Amino acid sequence: MVRTADAASVEFGRTGVAVSSEDIADQPVQAIVIPANARGTLPASGSSALRSIVGIEIERELRAFAPLELGSAVQTGSGHLADRGISRIFHATISETPGGSTTLPTARSSLAAALDLSWRSRVELIATPILGLGSALHDDQRQEWVEEIVDEVVSHIRRRASQLARVVLVTKYPDDQPLVEQVVREARGSAWR
Fold first, then answer.
1. Contact yes or no for 5/15 (Cβ under 8 A)
2. Strand 73-76 relative to strand 88-95: parallel, antiparallel, unpaired?
3. Which of 51, 64, 97, 133 has the highest CB neighbour number within 10 Å of its CB?
4. What tens digit of pLDDT does each residue of 20-45 get?
5. What is the pLDDT of residues 94-116, one digit of tens each?
């Protein structure tokens, strides 16, 4: 059964884009995107310590793809997240090592790869973090990073006959939520005519 999120969204054609600062594992979606590293290990912290939530079998499934290419994405099952209605995880490869840094082009490329996988898998409801957005970035860098990630989501929606009904952009930092919401509204006003 397809669930819908309660958060208000900005409509891009038939696709709503919403912003949330709630945990990605708690989003009412069919699939989630999470950051991955080339070694194929799940994050041990952040994202509600997904390793402990999904179960070790998902990390084993992910490691079977290693080494992962930067800027790529792979799909696995969702482990225990299936109990929450999430049926698959798209692992976006943004760093070489666990906890490693990334670049904006790599984050954007891996998000594009994950969204393409979601299209092939006929996912209608998906949640993704603002991949690679770290706390060390200055305000102008944060703005640029968010704009680029939102642009990739909008580009995907425009590029394909998108079956996505809803994309939830999950902010790791609640203070970033107003910025992400503003960027989404601006993208709707300037890029979607």
1. no
2. antiparallel
3. 133
4. 999 999 999 999 999 999 999 887 65
5. 999 988 999 999 999 999 999 99
